[in-house]
Amino acid sequence: MVKKTLHTDVFALPKRKKPKRNRPGESEYNRKKKEEIRQREAEAKAEKERKKAEAVAKHTGKKASQRAARRQKRLKEGKMQQTDKDLAELLQTKDDVVCALEDVQDEAELRKKFPSEGTAGYGSEYFSSSRYKFRYLLSKDGTPVAQIYKWPWP
Questions:
Q1: 72-103 pLDDT, tens per residue?
Q2: How many helices (H) and strands (E) does the chain have?
Q3: Would you tell me how many other CB atoms lie within 10 Å of the CB of residue 40?
Q4: In this structure, are strands 132-138 and 81-82 parallel, antiparallel, or unpaired?
Q5: φ, ψ dihedrals at 120, nearest 5°
Q6: Enclosing H/E stretch for 144
Q7: How close are the terminal C-alpha atoms of the chain, in Å?
Q8: Which residues neighbour 65 within 8 Å (Cβ) at sequence distance 6 or greater?
Q9: pLDDT band for position 54 (50/70/90)?
């Protein structure tokens, strides 16, 4: 028994759909509705961007809050000094300052900035020699800065 199949043209194009006619007043209603939706989406996007900017400014997060707590503890202990200078002034390498690094608040973070954590290559002399000392400062905007300076020789 042979099944009968319908013969359809394989290369036939689909039928064209005619656009629906808009009734009077529908186009204005749709335009207003779309405009409201666009406005709500724009407001939601602006709110999301604002919250993201606030989160970045506050450094929210577990690790960031722990780091801030360590910074406050180091300030109380006297291992870090609060200054009234801005970040650009603290990052300048003048006088006895040999190297200045931004966003570094202790020696562990300072060592991470150098290759092989300061044991080999560039910067190893800062950690192995007694000629260099470290100074940890806090700029007036709250950014920690580490300065490596030459210890005065007699």
A1: 999 999 999 999 999 999 999 988 899 999 99
A2: 5, 4
A3: 10
A4: parallel
A5: -145, 155
A6: strand 144-150
A7: 112
A8: 59
A9: confident
